[in-house]
Amino acid sequence: MMLYPAMSKLNSYIPNRYMLVNVVARRARQIAEEAEDTGLHLDEKPVTLAIHEVADGKLTAGGVNVASEEA
């Protein structure tokens, strides 16, 4: 089974697997709450969206990256 995005790519932004789980879970909860509040239908699960944010460099070990807040 091949994982996408690769664990090595995710570890380049968040070096510890346990920290990665914590950051992704926290962001997934935020995404789910925002979708529920706005009534937005999500095409993918919140965890998948959060993992893709980490892979894109939008989330780091400290939380949300500064570059993504400005965009």
Notes on the structure:
- By secondary structure, the protein is mainly α.
- About 60% of the residues lie in helices and about 5% in strands.
- The chain is built from 4 helices and 2 strands.
- It has helices at about 5-15, 15-40, 45-55, 65-70; strands spanning about 60, 65.
- Strands 1-2 form a two-stranded antiparallel ribbon.
- Helix 2 packs across helix 3 (about 45-55).
- The longest helix has 22 residues, at about 15-40.
Helix content: 55-70%
Task: Profile the largest sheet.
Answer: 2 strands, antiparallel
- Strand order, largest beta sheet: 1-2
| Helix-strand makeup class | mainly alpha
- Tally of contiguous helical segments: 4
Short recap of the structure:
The chain has four helices and two strands, in the order αααββα. The protein has 71 residues and is mainly alpha-helical.
